[in-house]
Every structure is written in C-alpha cells, then in structure tokens.
Amino acid sequence: MVKKLILIGASTGGPGRLHTILEQLPHDLNAAVVIAQHMAPHFISSFVKQLSFSTSFEVKEVVDGMKISPSCVYICSGECQLIEQRGSIVFVHREPSDVVYSPDVNTLFSSAAELSKTIEKMGIILTGIGDDGARGSKAVFDAGGACMFESEASATVYGMPRCAIELVPQGKVGSMEQIVEAIRRFGGIHV
C-alpha cells in the first residue's frame, strides 16, 4: 500500500506549475501524487496526455474504484475522494454536484486527512483564484500532515495560497524551487 501521498491543488496558472514540478521529480519518487487542477472535465484527458509526454511518471485520469500506486500521478476530475479499502487506497469518483470548483481541492484533501495516520500526507496549494483548498489544507494539517503554499512572489494569482495560509499559518510558504525541493525530501529523494 502507498505510504506517502502528495496532494496538489491548483487553479489559474496551475498547469504550467504542475509541468514544472513533475519535470523535476524522479520517476522513482517514493510517493503517489494526486492533483486537483481546476479544469473543465472535457480537458482533463488531454492534460493527462500532455503531462505523460513531458514527465517520467505514469499519469492517469482518475476513475471510480482506481487503486493508488506509488510513483504514479493521478489527475482528478469532478469530485475525487480517497478511501481505504482492503489494504489499498482507492478513489471514489463522482461527477461534480453542489461544489463551486471542479475538481474540488477541499473534497480531495479532506478525504485524504481521514486516511490512516500511518499514511504520510503532504498538501500543496499552488496559484489560483478563490479559496478552494484552504479548508482541506487545515484538515490535512490537523491530521498531522505537512502543508506548503506557493508564495505571493511566485504565484500567478495569490488567492488560493493566501486563503490557505490564513487558515494554516503554520504551513510552509515557498517558491516553485522550494516546493520541488520539499516534495523531493518528502518523497525520500536526497537533494
């Protein structure tokens, strides 16, 4: 079973940031990466293909019941939640309902916070408009996970990171380079 989860939430300006992060991580990262990038569902499959071509990771679009494996990248659409089932972490995927954002970062992060404490979690909020991810980051932090937020100087739009910092002032704030370094350390890769 996966022992480390890296959760990333992003909106405006996020796709470029995600390419930058994933291009700099080794394929044998000792963690699974789950991404909620605000994007219309019909663009998700082409985004998955773009990331697959530009990174060394296996990149998958989330489907209901999919099991998580280490060293893979998962792209959410709609509402994605994580649950533990028969010794595995599994996605529960639903079409968006009454959430404002799709995919919803708060839903993803909050579900991860409820997973077993033996699973290490790191929540990252990148550039974006609005406040999605703030409540989810608080849930991850309160469950013992690490949180990191893109700095105002680095972010294209500082809304999402700012709101997350307001709710989780104990989280780390950093540039893209610092975020990549933190992910590498979390994933067991020496920098």
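(ticket continues) Second input and output from the same batch:
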Amino acid sequence: MNGTVRFGIVVVAVALLAAPSIGLAQELYATGQTIAPAYEGWERNDDGSFNLVFGYMNRNWEEEIDVPIGPDNSIEPGGPDQGQPSRFHPRRNRFVFRIRVPADFGDRELVWTLTTQGQTERAYATLKRDYFIDDLVIQANYGAGGAAGSTPELPDNQPPTLEIEGERERTVPAGEPLSLVALSTDDGKPRARSITSNPRYPRPITTDTATGHRLSWFVYRGAGPVTFDPPQIKVWEDTRDNVDSPWSPGWKTPEPPEDGRWVAEATFAEPGDYVLRAIAHDGGLATIADLTVTVTP
C-alpha cells in the first residue's frame, strides 16, 4: 500500500504539537496545501456492529477546500457517498464522521480516497486491534483530561444532548438569512476550564481543548460562502493566539444560554445544495445534527 496515509493517534498528535511552534510555517502554509484523510479507529456498538471513525488533516491554516463527492472524494466499497464531508476546514478535524459496519465485517476494509491540489491520499479503515477507540480515548485526544490527564469525571461524562428545532430540510433564497435554533443541554462534565499559556513558550505546548458546554454551526457540505450571525466558535484546532477557538491559549468557554436554545442565522451567498452541521461539545465528547438546505437564486 505504497503512498497511503495511516494516521495513528500518537503520530498525528506529535505532528500537531510541533506545527504551532513554527510561526513561519503558519504564514507559509495559509493556502495551497493538501488534505490527508485520517482513520481515527473503530468503536463497538451494543448490537455487535462497529463504527469506523474518520477525520482529516487540512494542512492549510486559512484555506477551506471544497471537494464534491465523487472520484476525488469517495469511500469504497459501497460508495462513493458514505457521509463524508465535502467542505474541509483548516488543520486537524478529529472524529468527523462514522460509518456503521456489520458485526461480521471481519478483516475487510473501507478506503477513503481524497484528491486535493492534484495529490491523492487515502485512509484505510479496518478492525485491527490497535485501532480500537472508546469515549476515554476520544476525550484524551481532545485534551479534556488536561496536561496531567487527571480529570476524575471523564469516565462518567456523557455527550451533550442536541436537537435542531424545526424542519431538517429547508429552502431559502441566496442572500436571505435562515434562522437556526439548536436545543442542547449537558451534564456539566468535564468541569469548565480554559487553556493557559506557559510564559516560557510563545505557543501552547499541548493541543488541549477548553472544556465546558459549547455549540457551533458550520458548513459540512456545499461549495458557496456562508456567513453565520453571530460568528461561530471554531470547530477546528486553531492553536494560534487570540482567536475564537477552544484550542487557543487562554480561551474560555462562554456561558451557555439559560434556556438551552442556541440561536443563529446563516446567509448563503450562492445557490446550491448545502449541509449545515451543528456540533454540541463539552470539550471531551460531542453530538452532531445536520440540516439540509437548498439555496435558490
């Protein structure tokens, strides 16, 4: 399998720890770089089936890249469309989507093929033992345990609840705001905290995320520009200083709305078919819900 991409959790973490400390790389690689699909691992479901979990690494710090479902963005066998994104946000995006496979999946594999900037990369999903993940592994990868990994409530943490208010398929003209209301609550675990910078280092030395209940809307599929009001907390691992990102040093999770209703508007600049995704996150575990939008001229 020459030229393939097999992201191990440790390997990806090491790469990310190194990248933010190189300020020059952040400037040079704002745009023009490729995307690597990543196989995060497999989960076991109560009914005996499995989830194959994928994410990706967009090597750009600024550029979002759209890759329509098809030859340049396919999962086989059984594809090309198996729920993967077509809009790729900058940098590392973990545990983005899951594909359920039967209990007798055995030694078969699914292959996610992604071509960007003329370069093709692949992620191979199998049930090999080393790829097993569970909620504790996921929370550790998000950094919810802190630098010392000593957050005692992680084994009992439950992901936030999430429901989109209204129809899950909508139509709106380009340029006209679309109302978005998400209902979400959380169990308060892990306890809210924020990342603090080490004064000896110009950049954070971990990829820990701030904990506490938060919710963001973002574009999962669709090729045109979309503006959110209010601007949404970033869902990708932006570790730079002074940005609205849970991975930014010193960032603190805002207080959630008292009634659990997260209200926003989305305005689409161009006609087309879109999928907006809401993600409710507590810094350790996340819940997603999708809204399909047809944008007319």
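Agent notes: The two ends are 45 Å apart (CA to CA). The first helix runs from residue 9 to 18. Closing as not reproducible unless the customer responds.
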